Each structure stands twice: as C-alpha cells, then as structure tokens.
TrEMBL record:
Family: Belongs to the glycosyl hydrolase 47 family.
Protein name per its UniProtKB record: alpha-1,2-Mannosidase
Keyword terms: Calcium, Disulfide bond, Endoplasmic reticulum, Glycosidase, Hydrolase, Membrane, Metal-binding, Signal-anchor, Transmembrane, Transmembrane helix
Chain positions covered by the region annotation Disordered: 78-105, 119-162
Parts of the chain that traverse the membrane: 48-66
Keyword Endoplasmic reticulum on entry: yes
Subcellular locations according to the entry: Endoplasmic reticulum membrane
Catalytic center residues: E225 (proton donor), D358, E465 (proton donor), E494
Membrane topology: Single-pass type II membrane protein
Entry's Gene Ontology molecular function annotations: calcium ion binding; mannosyl-oligosaccharide 1,2-alpha-mannosidase activity
Enzyme class: hydrolase
Species, as recorded: Cricetulus griseus (Chinese hamster)
Amino acid sequence: MYPPPPPAPHRDFISVTLSLGESYDNSKSRRRRSCWRKWKQLSRLQRNVILFLLGFLILCGFLSYLQAADQWKALSGRPAEEQKVKPEVPPALPAPQKERAKPEDFPDIVPQKRLRHFRRGPPHLQIRPPNTVSKDGTEDDAKEKETALGNAQQEENTQRTIISWRGAVIEPEQATELPSKRAEASTKPPFLAPRIWKESEFKEARNWVSEKLNFQKNVDVNLFESTIRILGGLLSTYHLSGDSLFLRKAEDFGNRLMPAFTTPSKIPYSDVNIGTGFAHSPQWTSDSTVAEVTSIQLEFRELSRLTGNKKFQEAVEKVTEHIHSLSGKKDGLVPMFINTNSGFFTHPGVFTLGARADSYYEYLLKQWIQGGKKETALLEDYVKAIEGIKTHLLRHSQPGKLTFVGELAHGRFSAKMDHLVCFLPGTLALGVHHGLPADHMDLAQALMETCYEMNRQMETGLSPEIAHFNLYTRADHKDVEVKPADRHNLLRPETVESLFYLYRVTRDHKYQDWGWEILQSFNKYTRVPSGGYSSINNVQNSQKPDPRDKMESFFVGETLKYLYLLFSDDLELLSLDTCVFNTEAHPLPIWAPA
C-alpha cells in the first residue's frame, strides 16, 4: 500500500481576461450615447446658440485663411529681385545710379529716409544744389556735384505735382531759395506761380455743373456740411469766375435747404431732404450741434446779398441772435448741443473748442469781418469767448511748456486737444490783422508752435486726430501723448490753415518751412501711387502707417489750397483785406462799407 501523496502547495491568484478590442468599442459607444444624451437634454435655444457660434468660428477661420492666402500669393508673385531688396527696415527710393533701380519698380516700398535735400520748399522747388566751396576756396569736385544734383532731381521728379480738382496735387514753379533764406536775398524768384485757375479744367468742370449737377434728388443731406461745401463752393466759384451759372445753382440749392429752419425754435434741423423738402433731426436725438447751426451764416448771408432775397440771411441771423441772448454759457464759451424744439442748450457744463463747437467761434469773427466790421454784438461775443478760453481752457504742458487748449466738463479739466482746435491760431491772427488786441497774436504764435509739435513729435510727422498733454513732468514722457484710438490722421487742414494765416500776418518764413515739412510727410506716408492721398490709421508707426483707402474732400478743398497759398509770394492772392474764407476754405468777398 502506497502512502498518500503530499498535499499540493497553496497558490493565490486572480484570473483576469481582457478583451481590449471589445472594451474599447463599448467605451466609445457609451461616450457617444452620453454626448448625444446631453445634446438632447439641451433646450432648442441652447442648441441654436452653440450651432451659431460654431458656424461663426468656421466662417472666421475661412476668411482668415483667404486673407493669408492672398498675402502669400502676392508675395510669391513678386519678382525674385524685388523680394530680395526689401529688408526689415524699408529703404528710401532706390539710388539713381543703377539703371534698374527706378521708383516704379518698387511700388510697395515705403520710403523711410528722404534723400539729401539742400533747401526746404515745395516739390520741384530745388532742382540744382548750390555751389559748395572747400576750405581752400575751390569748388567741390564736379563728380560730387553731379551726384548731388541727381539725388535732388530724383526727389523732385517723384514729388512733382499740380493743384487740381482732378488729382489733389501741387506743381510749383522753379525757385532756388528756401523761404527763410529768400527774405535775405535782394532778388526774390517766385516761390509759387499762382496757377489756381486752369482754363481747360474749369471749362470741363463748368460743363459738368451745367449739364449734370441736378439737386432734384430724394436724398437727405446734412445742412451744415452741404452749406459749407456745396453752397459755399458755388458762391466762391461765382465770385472767382463771374459766371452766373454758379449763382443760379447756389440759389437753387439754398432754397432746397430752407425747410431745415421750420422748427419751433428756429434752430434748424440737422438734416433735410433736398428733393422732398422734409427736414428732421437725427433719429437718435432732437438736438443739433452748436457748431453746425452757427457755421452756415457766411454762406446764407452772401446768398441774400447776391440774390436780393432776404429770407436766407434772416433765417441764419435769427439763429445768431438767439444764441447771443441764450443763457448757459461760461464766460463766452458755449455748450456743444442745442435742442431744436426748446431752443435751449443741452448737456450743459461741457465746453470744448474741438468737435461740435469749434467753428462757432470762428464764424463770430468772420461774420464781423464779412459785414464790414459793423456788427458789434458779433465782435463782443468773440472777444469774450477768447477771454473765456484763457481763463478756463488754457494750460501748459511738461516738460516743453507747450501752450494748449483743453476741455472742461462740469468743472473738471481734461488735457485733451483735438486737431480741430488748431484752427484757433489762424483765427486769432486774422483778428489781429483786422485790428484786435496784440496779445491775441502772442497766443496765436504759442498755439501755432503746439500744433506744429503735434505733427513733429509723431514718427510720420503728421498729427493724430486727438492729442493728450502731460501736465506733470515724468521721465521718458514727451509733451504730447496719443491713445491708440486717436492715432489716425484724416488729412485735416487746420494746422496748415493756421500756418497760412500766421505767415500772411507776420511774414515769418518759418511758417512756410513748417508747412513744407508737413507737405513732405503727406507725400511720404499718405500719397497713393495710383493717384490721390489716403487717411492713415497710425501716425506713430512710420513703417506701417496703415492707409484707410479714403480721401476726405476737405483735403483737396482746404489742406492743399492752404498749402498753395502758404507757399505763394503773392500776398494779394485772395487777400485777407478783400475776402474771408468760410470754414471749408472757400473765399467770399468782404462787403464794402456803405
């Protein structure tokens, strides 16, 4: 008999069977069922919102892809040579020594450094450098002079322009002296020939006005903008040409604007339909801006004088008289808004010389001048307002102690100054020219320097739409600072307008020099190769000023016109003693004394 076998050793173990494929499939299935269950639990509104956001994101991504693709395509499509010549900091126009380096070969290169220029002045002003003399009294090497001449000639060729309703440009006559240097010379070549009137272009424009300018249209227009541009332009052209066609058109248009004055208070509505005669306030308010209702007087008064129909003048002078007697002012300063129903100021306690109030002060002085300096109420309101500006709005910046005009809101001062305020130095100088106190000229010159610095302190040499001034000294801070939302430039005229007045009154050529610098900046950063100029988004970035593809009409009507007159040595051309410019730079005659 055999002994029993020994007991088997005890082993603890767990048997685990994994079916990876089946488990993974089941997990995915459960997740899908869970997501679908959660989706079904959402309300219809929630599902629609999610679908809308998803679609919006897909659309944005698609548009971004198209934009990037277009940019890559444009870059890839350039010639290899052109891609190579564009470094991180774009150069000035290519040097003229190389035959292939022509301006037209580089249409997208932004010039950053101006070629050597011997004397400042309008484009085409300097075509020959002065002879330079070495220490031993001999002339410089002929080759050096030839190179310098080539550089100067190339710059002029790229900037030669002509003033015209077609092209927004300037073409001065030859001259060889800087404005500030010509005053010292015994013989003075013409700084600019008065080429304002081009016969063939005027004839073509006249034909268009005669045959195609028809105001019988069902369209709303802004009373103020249409008056200063269209009515003022037609009246001015009538005086410059003597052609009665323009007066007939002006009277027709003036009649179509008159329904705007049919309000309970006689303060005009902001908008009027020139076809139907229906006038109204904007949809969001029953207010009009004070600047708009008080800056149409020059034009309507002149229309009455020419036509003999007093209704135009009576309508606008009722507005002037009403504002004159209205309460709510602060030492001659007026609020920005006025109600067309009640005739009272609204939003009281806010005072500015910028948008919505600026040209009220300008037209007080200019109406007084237009009427032969006989309407004393206008003069009194103007002088009082200037004193109010000195008392409440005038400050000095740090560290440069620039004089500027800020804003006042319910007793609180803001160091904010619109570029629009740069009309004020010119208006002050105009007043001094017509006999107002000499201290107005001191303020005009101080403010003129500030407006120049608003341009000079920017990388592009062009002023922002709005500037803020430092009231306290801070390390590494300039006098002028700009917020991102305000750094655009719309090609506005106010700085060069005031430069024109300051030069006419003082004969100081530095104002011509400053205007020349600004013109060069316009040419460098805003000029479009195919013609015209464009507003830019960023005056602080000379590498990427970011054009807006829009040129305001006031650039042709005002900015270039004032530059032309600033550069002219003919001080009787549109003399300040015989004409007054409306706020769109259209000259109207000063009425002869009775």
